[in-house]
Specification:
The protein has 236 residues and is mostly helical. Helices cover 78% and strands 0% of the residues.
């Protein structure tokens, strides 16, 4: 409840209380790790996920998220050795838990970051094959198309496929809005951001989306007032 209200301090206090009451409950550490990841407290998230996996060794999702947190930490610390180790952890996680879609999706995200686009696409396909009703992997695969192939139309089609699966996927609407901003289509971008705002689950998410919506509207007003054609960051 506190997290939905955007009150991360109270949420963390609740988790601390829960740990004191039931220190061997793996779910507490897993959920707190997810919150820490959301708050960009990557090192704390990594510790929580690791504690979770020690309490429940076959918790596939926690293993995947721990590996991805280690990857994010390596980026923050600009450590090539830690990066290599984290990528190996992600790959090992897909072998150890071959039915965990999130393991393949997180490995694919890391591969995409590292420019390993073909391998990333293959792992996103594995993720969607395992969980065909999960829209998030389709959104990430759409972003991969944009980065890898500079294919805005293919990217938009892939992300819209996510909305065919779940028309309440706020991540898809936000991503579509961001792409339309890059294409210079501010009115369309604003509509997507407004849809994402309607679906926002926390005040933090809503504030972020509202700022994107206001920026798109402001840019649209300026281009209309001064009869400027907005530049496109994407080659269509």
């Amino acid at each position: 409840m506190h997290m939905q209200e955007g009150n991360s301090t109270e949420a963390m206090s609740d988790f601390a209380t829960a740990v004191r009451i039931d220190p061997d409950n793996q779910d507490i550490y897993h959920h707190r790790g997810q919150l820490n990841l959301l708050l960009e407290q990557i090192e704390d998230a990594s510790r929580d996920f690791e504690k979770c996996t020690k309490l429940k060794e076959d918790f596939a999702l926690a293993h995947a998220q721990h590996s991805y947190a280690k990857y994010r930490l390596a980026i923050l610390q600009q450590s090539p050795m830690q990066m290599q180790s984290a990528m190996q952890m992600l790959e090992e996680c897909t072998r150890k838990f071959p039915t965990c879609a999130e393991a393949f999706a997180l490995f694919a995200q890391a591969q995409s970051d590292q420019g390993q686009f073909q391998q990333a696409d293959e792992n996103f396909q594995k993720a969607t094959a395992l969980e065909p009703d999960n829209p998030t992997a389709y959104v990430h695969r759409g972003l991969l198309y944009l980065t890898w192939k500079k294919d805005a139309d293919g990217s938009l089609a892939m992300i819209k496929k996510a909305l065919d699966i779940d028309n309440k996927c706020d991540f898809a609407y936000e991503t579509l809005g961001t792409i339309e901003v890059q294409r210079g289509n501010m009115n369309v971008a604003k509509e997507y951001f407004e849809k994402a705002i309607e679906l926002a689950r926390t005040e933090m998410e809503m504030a972020h989306l509202y700022s994107l919506c206001v920026a798109a509207e402001a840019q649209n007003n300026v281009t209309k007032k001064y009869k400027i054609t907005p530049p496109s960051a994407l080659n269509m």
